[in-house]
Amino acid sequence: MATIKDVAALAGVSAGTVSNVLNRPSYVNAETRERVLAAIRELDFVPRQGSRQFRPGRVRTLGLSIANLDNPFFVDVALGAEERCTELGAGVIFCNSSYDSVRESHNLDLLVQSRVQGIIIAPVDEKSSRLAMLKDRGVPMVFVDRVGDDRECWSVVVDDFRGGQLAMQQLLDRGHRRIAFLGHPEKSQKVRTRLAGARDALTGRTDVELELMAADSWTIEAGAAAADRLAERAPANRPAAVACANDMLALGLQHGLMRQGIRVPQDIAIVGYDDLAWSEVADVPLTTVRQPRKALGRTAVDMIMDLLSRPPATVPARNHVVLQPELVVRESA
Description:
The protein is an alpha/beta fold. It has 13 helices and twelve strands. The chain has a six-stranded parallel sheet. α1 (about 5-10) packs across α2. The termini are far apart.
């Protein structure tokens, strides 16, 4: 079996540099890091420290890396994970990446250095090379929410295609035929999937117009900016209803429209997505698609515990759990 010294010799670096690549990769420049990783692959080197670190039988401490805790959706996911960890007597370390892939990489380094036994991650970038490297090292990981259903990994997500169908069907059932979708599908796979579900609900409906309204983010500010754009248009040229990619967009849109004297739902109906706590207490309570946010976090903890309990040779490469959304009808649509 190859040793860390063998890797260092092949890569032309010190054993300490190899250790940094394995444990603190952000400390090593990209060229050297790639040279060391190439030597690891060539020698089929498996770090002994990793196998000790994640062995069964220890008191569990998990790492939770969240894409952005400014988003209430992720706060609820994290709270669900913490609740389940408390029930199981496990510890949890939280990291907030703030939609910053560099910060996420540093957070993952921190979790590995802290010797967590497994990592639950709602990633900024699911295709990150750092995540691939952790997988190659055998670090147990479960992805939450932000992962494609074709990826070979353990993950728990909500059926966003179904959620998009539910949002659109509600607007159709209310008789709307000029409908807009507000979001940023070019930037987010989740938004693309929700849009695809909305379009599927329109299959065969030649009497319905669907307009795509761009939003540069998921935020309340982006929703308010969309309201300003709608207010500049003549009433006859506005959509009668808007399906929003998330609740923050929907709440920003609602507030912005009402500030401009445009009534919700009489002039423009709105459907959100998430069912955040704010949605029920909005000026016009928001019709929305509820995601089981805490269940996402709780399920991820159960999955990582299951993964940790299995001998590595028996762990399936893929375990993809899909939770179902539900429509919550209130006054906005």
